[in-house]
Structures are given as structure tokens and as C-alpha cells.
């Protein structure tokens, strides 16, 4: 559905998966009190629900029944393509969470809890880039020329960066109030690491857009190569800085690795496609006019 740009079906499937997980958890974990087994069953049932709904939608929309859903030739091709990108996903997960593992190792679980609140709040900024990336991946894959892809990705990249910068700045200003209001005074120490990690989170939002451009063009391995570099840098910085600066050191290390990731992807995108950094990093007056027209249309 994402590849066909059928985002109505795509969103319904994703929402049903999350809603199903909630409802199955209430029934199995809370009502029947099955504990961990109930949580695992809830996850499995929500995945099964998502698959069944997907099959129904594919049959109605594209006349694809279960016998036509499998092709050995396509399975081999998609498996090879998917593996190239999956290593990037694994390394990205390590990059996202290695700081928490090392905090638990070098300091204690309390520091992990305090730091996790900072990360949880900061990563909410990625909601914009994640939504845009889902659409961009499909659009880039379906466009016919590199010129069209370059124009569309540049538009998405600079606007994602602009919106995320505004959102990140707002959260930075409100971080102390937000953390104390929603999590309590016990998590006041989360404010400092939050402020250190925000710059990396903001720049990495643009990196997410460029990463989906690479996948849409059929080059997921680029993300894997860059993820290898940033994961090792993040690991090294965390091992070095956490024993010295504690939670602040973890935030600095992770933020630095995110900035490095964004820089490497930006350099590759610029060199590969012959596009200036300004084109996909800096908001244009035409983009502002577009915002104005959309706001006027919405208000009217």
C-alpha cells in the first residue's frame, strides 16, 4: 500500500495494528491476568489482525488472493533487497539504544530511567520526519526521472528540517516545564541531557528523509555503510564520555553521531545528484508562500 501510495489503506492497517495491540492487551494481560505470556499473545494477535486486514484490502483493491500473494522469483529479489537495508535497521537500532546499555553498565539503572525520559521526549520530534519519509519513499520509487526525484526530495528535506527545527526549538524552551509536569520533579535531571541531544535529533530528521530517498532509488546499502560508521563512532564516544560526564556524556555522544549521520548522507546526496546543500537544507521563500496559501485555505 505504501508503494502504491494507497495511504488510506496503509494508515488503516497501521492503526488497526496498534489498536488491536491495545485491545488484546486489555483482554489478555489486564482482564485474564496472563502476564508476560498475555503480552506476547497480544503482540502476535495484533500482527495476525494486520495481516488478515491487509489480505482483504489487497483482494478488494488489486484482486490479489492468497494464492497470488507469493512468487518465488519475487521472493528472492525482495529478500536480497531487504537484507541490504535490514543491516542498516539493526545498526540504527544499536545507534539509538547503545547509550542506554552503556549507561546501565557504567553507572546504574536510575540514570537509564532519567536519560530515557530525555530521549523519549526528544524523539517525539521525529513524528514529522517519519510521516514525510513514508510518503517520500513511495513517491521517489514511482517517479520516472532523477530530476523529479531530486526536486521532490529536496523539497521534503528542507521543509522537514525547517518544521523540526521549529518544533525542537519550542520543546527546548518548554523542556523544563514539560518534564516536571508530565513526569514529576524526580526527573528534573532529564532536562540537561534533553538539551544536549536536541541538536542531533533535529538534524537527524533530515537524515531520515534522505535515507528513504536512497531506498526509493534502490540503494539501501548506502544507509548501511553510513550506519556502520556512525554506530562505531557512537560506541566509541559513549565508552569515552559516559565514565567522565555520565548522562550528559551519553547525550553528547548520541547527538554527535546523529549529526555525523546527517552530514554523511547530505554529502553523498549532494555529490551523487549534483545538488547544492542549500537546495535541500535551507527553506525557500516559495515554501513560505506555500505555507501561507495552505493556512489561508484551511481557515477559509
What would you say about this model in short?
With 300 residues, the protein is mostly helical. Helices cover 85% and strands 0% of the residues.
The largest β sheet comes out as: none
The backbone outline, from C-alpha atoms, is globular
Structural class: mainly alpha
Summed up, the helix count is 11
Q: Could you please describe the fold and organization of this structure?
A:
This protein is mainly alpha-helical. The chain contains eleven helices and no strands. It has helices at 7-31, 35-62, 72-106, 109-123, 126-142, 146-183, 191-216, 221-245, 247-273, 277-281, 285-299. The protein is globular.
SSE blueprint:
Blueprint: H1 7-31, H2 35-62, H3 72-106, H4 109-123, H5 126-142, H6 146-183, H7 191-216, H8 221-245, H9 247-273, H10 277-281, H11 285-299
Helix pairs in contact: 1-2, 3-4, 3-8, 3-9, 4-6, 4-7, 5-6, 5-7, 6-7, 7-9, 8-9
Question: What would the keywords be for this entry?
Answer:
300 residues; mainly alpha; 11 helices
Amino acid at each position: 500500500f505504501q508503494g502504491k501510495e494507497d495511504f488510506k489503506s496503509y494508515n488503516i492497517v497501521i492503526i488497526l495494528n496498534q489498536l488491536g495491540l491495545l485491545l488484546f492487551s486489555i483482554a489478555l494481560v489486564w482482564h485474564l491476568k496472563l502476564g508476560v505470556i498475555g503480552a506476547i499473545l497480544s503482540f502476535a494477535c495484533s500482527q495476525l489482525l494486520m495481516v488478515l486486514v491487509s489480505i482483504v484490502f489487497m483482494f478488494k483493491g488489486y484482486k490479489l488472493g492468497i494464492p497470488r500473494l507469493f512468487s518465488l522469483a519475487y521472493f528472492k529479489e525482495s529478500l536480497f533487497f531487504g537484507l541490504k537495508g535490514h543491516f542498516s535497521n539493526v545498526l540504527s537500532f544499536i545507534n539509538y539504544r547503545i547509550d542506554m546499555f552503556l549507561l546501565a553498565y557504567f553507572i546504574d539503572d536510575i540514570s537509564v530511567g532519567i536519560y530515557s525520559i530525555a530521549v523519549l521526549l526528544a524523539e517525539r520530534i521525529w513524528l514529522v520526519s517519519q510521516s514525510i519519509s513514508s510518503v517520500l519513499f513511495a513517491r521517489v520509487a514511482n517517479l520516472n526521472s532523477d530530476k523529479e526525484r531530486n526536486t521532490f526530495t529536496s523539497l521534503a528535506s528542507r521543509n522537514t528540517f525547517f518544521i523540526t527545527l521549529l518544533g525542537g526549538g519550542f520543546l527546548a524552551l518548554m523542556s523544563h516545564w514539560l518534564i516536571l509536569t508530565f513526569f514529576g520533579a524526580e526527573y528534573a535531571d532529564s532536562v540537561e541531557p534533553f538539551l544536549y541531544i536536541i541538536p542531533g535529533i533535529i538534524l537527524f530528521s533530515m537524515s531520515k528523509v534522505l535515507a528513504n530517498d536512497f531506498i526509493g532509488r534502490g540503494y539501501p546499502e548506502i544507509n548501511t555503510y553510513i550506519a556502520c560508521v556512525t554506530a562505531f563512532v557512537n560506541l566509541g564516544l559513549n565508552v569515552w564520555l559516559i565514565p567522565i560526564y555520565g548522562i550528559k556524556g551519553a547525550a553528547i555522544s548520541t547527538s554527535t553521531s546523529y549529526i555525523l549521520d546527517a552530514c554523511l548522507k547530505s554529502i553523498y546526496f549532494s555529490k551523487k545528484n549534483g545538488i547544492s546543500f542549500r537546495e535541500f537544507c535551507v527553506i525557500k521563500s516559495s515554501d513560505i508562500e506555500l505555507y501561507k496559501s495552505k493556512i489561508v485555505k484551511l481557515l477559509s
